[in-house]
UniProtKB/TrEMBL annotation, chain A:
GO terms for molecular function: L-cystine transmembrane transporter activity. It is a multi-pass membrane protein. SUPFAM superfamilies: MetI-like. This is Amino acid ABC transporter membrane protein 1 (PAAT family). GO terms for cellular component: ATP-binding cassette (ABC) transporter complex. The chain crosses the membrane at residues 22-46, 156-173, 193-215. Belongs to the binding-protein-dependent transport system permease family. HisMQ subfamily. InterPro entries: AA_ABC_transptr_permease_3TM (IPR010065), ArtM/GltK/GlnP/TcyL/YhdX-like (IPR043429), MetI-like (IPR000515), MetI-like_sf (IPR035906). Its main location: membrane. It comes from the Bacteria. Residues 18-211 form the ABC transmembrane type-1 domain. It is found in: Cell inner membrane; Cell membrane. It comes from Paracoccus sulfuroxidans. Keywords: Amino-acid transport, Cell membrane, Membrane, Transmembrane, Transmembrane helix, Transport.
From TrEMBL, chain B:
This is Amino acid ABC transporter membrane protein 2 (PAAT family). CDD domains: TM_PBP2 (cd06261). It comes from the Bacteria. It is a multi-pass membrane protein. InterPro entries: AA_ABC_transptr_permease_3TM, ArtM/GltK/GlnP/TcyL/YhdX-like, MetI-like, MetI-like_sf.
Length: 221, 217
């Protein structure tokens, strides 16, 4: 017991490569978040619309995204789509998987936020002569995004954590993938993953603190 | 898609995987909830300053990918300490800690939702701290905490798909093994997804129902 010699130098040597991986991780999380928010707004609009088919699409999306593992969704985006003859790169599959997940969770958050906005506001907008789309865009949407800012921050953190699942579909440029490759190279499993853990922790902390600063600036009133 | 090479043995293999998923989830949720209640009460009782170390550790459990936590602890037990524990044990330890980190937050929120005046009333009626906790706080906090706790338990079930990294063959891993052999990814993944969905969806709806029912009084 305890006859293990830590060799941090061996692992720290690769820190620049891991930091590059961290950049890719942040890039994936950011892109998936931006597209995810856009899709979630669309899904929310679908749910509000009277059309039954659109409602069913939105409902199915949200329930599947929330009730199956993220890893399953990424598998589906990679191996599932591949069985239709479309072969995507791991980067794109991972992006699709995380975006699908983000959109589902965010749409549910938006629904919660909508409950806090009184119906009368839409009606007031409509009676001022706005169209349904106009009143949604310029009255409901800004308030909805504001109320769900905190859940969005949480989802961003989740997106960062979810990028580590990309390794299952062969992704090897994100932080987890790079660490895995280096581990195969050097066998310093504990040291390398400990460093990766610290980087992940710092990224998530930076996001939560950054979001708090942005919120303080944006929502002063 | 409909003429499949899936045999009954394969179905049993999948069912075993599903059983493993449920087993890991059940153990982790039970231990994690007990730990979470203890951590949550401690954090509430000793105040934010003294609880800072505990808060920090629980925060770490929530801001590092579960995959890394599993690999790291597995490497720690296997290489550093030199214990040859089975993957299932490591998986349950990591998932329990992970559950407890979220559960502590839920418990703290639940306790804070009980009005201070109610608790003071209990104490001035001569109840001890323990009695107050058991008979006043527990029933009132449960109302607030149970819906989120159901969500947490389902989250742990979904996250248990990651324990394949410590050589535990749960549902998603067994599906992947079968995909490698049968080369029918879509069909097998749909079966696997349906299983998760069938367990998760009704419980999630039940949680939502409880939340709605208990919130308006």
């Amino acid at each position: 017991m305890f006859n293990y010699t830590f060799q941090w130098n061996q692992a720290l040597k690769y820190l620049p490569r891991m930091l590059e991986g961290a950049l890719v991780t942040m890039e994936i999380a950011l892109i998936s978040m931006v597209i995810g928010i856009a899709l979630a707004v669309l899904l929310t609009a679908f749910r509000l619309s009277g059309n039954r088919i659109l409602k069913a699409i939105a409902q199915t999306w949200v329930e599947v995204a929330r009730n199956t593992p993220a890893l399953f969704q990424i598998y589906m985006a990679h191996f599932g789509i591949a069985s239709f003859g479309i072969h995507l790169s791991p980067f794109i599959s991972l992006l699709i998987g995380i975006t699908f997940n983000n959109a589902g969770y965010l749409a549910e958050n938006f629904r919660g936020a909508l409950k806090a906005i009184p119906d009368t506001q839409t009606r007031a907008g409509r009676s001022l002569g706005m169209s349904a789309v106009q009143s949604f865009r310029s009255i409901i949407l800004p308030q909805m995004l504001r109320i769900s800012f905190l859940p969005m921050t949480n989802q961003m953190v989740w997106a960062i954590l979810m990028t580590s699942l990309g390794v299952t579909v062969g992704m090897n440029t994100d932080l987890y993938g790079v660490t895995q490759d280096l581990n195969a190279l050097t066998f310093r499993t504990f040291e390398l993953f400990a460093i990766a853990a610290v980087i992940f922790y710092l990224i998530t902390k930076a996001i939560t603190i950054g979001a708090r600063l942005i919120a303080a600036r944006l929502f002063r009133y | 898609m409909f003429d499949t090479a899936l045999t009954s043995t394969d179905l049993i293999f999948l069912a075993k995987g599903a059983g493993m998923t449920l087993l890991v989830t059940a153990i982790s949720v039970v231990i994690g909830t007990i730990l979470g209640i203890i951590f949550g009460v401690i954090r509430y009782q000793i105040g934010p300053i003294w609880a800072a170390p505990l808060t920090f550790v629980l925060d770490i459990c929530r801001s590092i990918p579960l995959l890394i936590q599993l690999v790291l602890l597995n490497a720690f037990f296997g290489m550093v300490v030199g214990l040859r524990w089975p993957g299932l044990t490591v998986a349950c330890i990591v998932l329990s800690l992970y559950t407890s980190a979220y559960c502590a937050e839920i418990v703290r929120g639940g306790i804070e939702a009980v009005p201070a005046t109610t608790r003071r009333a209990a104490r001035s009626l001569g109840m001890t701290w323990g009695q107050d906790m058991r008979q006043i706080v527990l029933p009132l906090a449960t109302r607030v905490a149970l819906p989120s706790w159901i969500g947490l338990a389902l989250g742990v079930m979904k996250d248990s798909a990651l324990v394949y990294v410590v050589q535990v063959t749960e549902l998603l891993k067994s599906t992947q093994i079968l995909i490698t052999r049968l080369q029918e990814p879509l069909f097998l993944l749909l079966i696997c997804g349906a299983f998760y969905f069938i367990i998760s969806y009704p419980l999630a709806r039940f949680g939502g129902y409880l939340e709605k029912r208990w919130s308006n009084d």
